[in-house]
Amino acid sequence: MANSLGLLQLDLTDSGLREHAAEHARAVREQITGLLAQAARAGELAPGVDTAALARAVQVTYNGTLILWALDPAAAPLADAVHADLDALLAPYRAR
Question: What's the whole-model pTM score?
Answer without folding.
Answer: 0.85
